[in-house]
Write a structure and sequence with these properties.
The protein is an alpha/beta fold. It is about 30% helix and about 20% strand. It has a six-stranded mixed β-sheet, sandwiched between helices. Helix 2 links the parallel strand 2 and strand 3.
Amino acid sequence: MQTAAAVTMVRDDAFFLRAWLRHYGETLGRQNCYVINHGYGEEVAELAKGCNIIGIPGDPHKNFDVKRWGLLNNLVGGLRKYYRHVIVGDVDELVVVDPEAGMNLLQFLEAAPEKRVLTPVGLEVIHRVDLEPEAVGDHIIGPRRYVRPAPHYSKPCVISAAAKVSRGGHFTQYPKLHTPDALYLFHLKFCDFDQYAGAMDRRNAITQDMGDDIKGTSIGRHWFGAERGEDRAMFEDFAKLKLEEEFDLGHLRKRMHRSFKPRGDTGYYEFNRPDPGTQYQLPERFVGVI
């Protein structure tokens, strides 16, 4: 049985797909990467050569995210018959092992117990436009060194147990919480101002084509132009977050475990997700990790 596969679904987001392919393709091997090409995009197909590409229609339709996660759940369930671990998430989310652990992601998963769901601590890579004028290139961490804790992106995304994942990937029907100290989920949405603006333009256009509201499409509010706000002001506000002196997130893991509980009677489990209002500068050892 192979150690690990990575699964995502993408439409047009070439910048994030390149990062996803570098990260998972180089570590797990492209033959173990599964890319659902929403809308049969030619650029996606070209970039993802060597991966397992699954093309699906891109016509606008209601309940988009419900259908998307239904497809992802079924694919993960099937792949678990062939892989010990399956990583699933959006194309702008990457599971990262702290280099201090002395191993890469594949080596980490080779040593990880099976029949579990692993929940990395979520960190949003933020572009400090006041401090980081350099554009991102082959690597994101380097030109970008600041992150903010993002409990909403502490997702149960490394699957080796029979567990259904909720819409958005935020919850699973798995009754235990495993948060390895060395594991993080880097969310890249805010890693570059120009890339953010372009991605939001594309997503706003998609929801406009659907001709429906947030409830009807089952997509997050950030996909809708009316919910977007002013891009530059949002990035400038990152400077207001309290800068912590030490990169130590053990207290966040403890908080997750203290509040872990059933999510009503849904069969899913959750933990509290308050916004700490803080930021960290990543230590030098993280440079080049993505």
